[in-house]
Amino acid sequence: LILVYLFILQVLGSPPCRFAPQFDTQLLLNDPNAQQEYRESVAYWESKFHQPGIGYSSASGYTFDGHGLDCTTGDKASPLHAFSAPSKEAMHVGMLALAVSGNKAAQIFVDPTDSGSALKAAVLLLQKKMNSYETWNKNYPGYGGYMPWVAVSNDDAELKPNPDWVGRVPSLDNGEWQWALYAASVALDGCDACKVIDATLGKRYRDYFDLMAGNAVTIFYNGNGQVRAEAKIKNMFVPPTPDNYASGGNNYWLNDPYEGEMFVWVMDLYGNWSAWGGQSEREKVWDLKQPQLQAVNFHTKEGKQITVQKGFWFSTHEQWKYLELPYLDVPTHQRLFRNCERARVQYSAERGIVGLYAAVSNWTTGGPVAQYFGNVGIPEIAFNPSATRDLLTPYASMMLMITEPGIGLAWHHNMLLMPRMQGPHGTTESMSSNGTYIAPVVTWDSKITTLLAMCGGLGPINGEGMKADGVYDRFVKVLSERWREFEQLEGEDIPFALPPPSVPPKGVPDFTLCQVPAK
Question: Are 126 and 118 in contact (CB under 8 A)?
């Protein structure tokens, strides 16, 4: 099959839209060449989403949340999601950072024509984005550089708060975005060819990161270890001062040991704690988080146990921090991370489920997506129940790409084999468990998280930056000390489970614009 695929690639000059059936699971498991061909094929078709008017605004460079799809053809259809959030920017900026650092799949995503064009395109997009960020900060200084959900337009380069986010700002999404900005600054600083195009862009990214970091404690710290998950802004048009901020609705705190932890690291490593008596105050934040940090055993059907960190829902989305920060440099975290992903695939494999679970848009029987399920995971090893067992998404395999690439690609490929899971704008969002229905939409969360993981994530880039800044040792120290209960893990000898064979439902065709190539 791979030889047939390579022949098609040579003849067409690009991978076919419906390329998944051309790959063999065993080759994806064991053959580095097949794995790289698969990554580059994914990147090529995700580049069809990475287009102005679909994935981002031509005016501002800012991401759109996503775009609807026609359920029959797979082409773009209403609605365009003319809004976005910092979490979407995290994925875009992260991919651009990888492109300027020389990652081939990332460069294909930015511009499939050639690496030189991709490098220039990435720098120009990062330039356009920074112009938008700096204008945002000038127009709304009360946000301290941070962003809420914003309205995005193809006709206007100036971003505006979504009406329901006027005077409000979240910390979790901004933590995801801020570490992507950091990666961009490190990547640009190390790219001589980028400096020929714009010699100051790397510094502008670092300056914007530092602006946000300098305001992090002022805006989001409530005292007593409490980090505001949402801050209210009394006046959006004045520079940050402590009396301009209060806790958001319900006084809920960012005390999770999941993706919200990325923002805590901004505060811990780069925040200004002088108003709270100095850096010793940081330990109260970790103390407040500690009760959420629990070990739990996943019980296999053979009676074995796999020790994992208990999830909120045990959605793959919760593992986002591993995508951006160098957690895997810490031995305990690497072992724990592998066990979490080991349990994830074991759960589905034992139950004959062809895919994996994560927070994602729900499928429809036809027409636009109307529902997003954040509460989808594995309830047996989570604090909270899941909303459904009938919703699978390819991006739930993303973390496997980092630790066990062959296994991750096999599970991703298995889901793409189902009807309409590939289209003219790349991977489809999600599907019902038997593959009959899909969520007819393409979004950054479900597509580009996966590709970022396939490219190795931002952990290595950010780790190098943190070492240069002298904060890396603090990062390792906290992770080593606070996660001590995970030094003894069960189940590390259990092999990563393979997906059960995909059996496409009868009578459900592929998109008309994305068919299996004729032999």
Answer: no
- Please compute, for residue 301, the number of CA atoms within 13 A of its CA located in the half-sphere on the CB side: 8
SS3 304: coil
Give the burial class of 237: count Cβ atoms within 10 A of its Cβ; 0-12 exposed, 13-18 middle, 19 or more buried.
exposed
Cβ proximity of 225 and 288 under 8 Å: yes
Residue pointed to by tokens 């005077």: 167
Residue pLDDT, tens place only, 301-351: 999 999 999 999 999 999 999 999 999 999 999 999 999 999 999 999 999
Short-list 502, 321, 315, CA closest to 397: 315
Residues in the chain: 519
Place 417 in a pLDDT band, splitting at 50, 70 and 90.
very high
Whether the Cβ atoms of residue 257 and residue 289 lie closer than 8 Å to each other:
yes
CA atoms of 172 and 261, how far apart (whole Å): 8
CB 362 within 8 A of CB 391: yes
Q: Bridge-partner residues for 233, per DSSP?
A: 245
The span from the CA of 153 to the CA of 475, in Å, is: 39
Q: Could you give the CA distance from residue 99 to residue 95 in angstroms, rounded to a whole number?
A: 6
- In 276-336, which ranges are E strands? 295-299, 305-309
List the one residue out of 98, 73, 63 whose CA is nearest residue 512: 73
**Confidence (pTM):** 0.96
Q: Which residue has the higher pLDDT, 166 or 278?
A: 166
Confidence band of 248 (pLDDT split at 50, 70, 90): confident
* Distance, CA of 66 to CA of 440 (rounded, Å): 11
Q: Which amino acid is at 28?
A: L
Does 250 score more than 80 pLDDT?
Answer: no
**Quick count: other Cβ atoms within 10 Å of Cβ 211?**
17
Helix 32-46 to helix 444-454 angle, to the nearest 10 degrees? Answer: 150
Mean pLDDT value across the chain: 96
pLDDT at residue 6 greater than cutoff 60: no
**Residues 70, 366: Cα–Cα separation, whole Å:** 9
Question: 348 Cβ partners below 8 Å, 6+ apart?
Answer: 354, 355, 356, 357, 497, 499
For residue 87, give every residue at least 6 positions away whose Cβ sits within 8 Å of its Cβ, in sequence order, or none.
172, 173, 176, 177, 444, 445
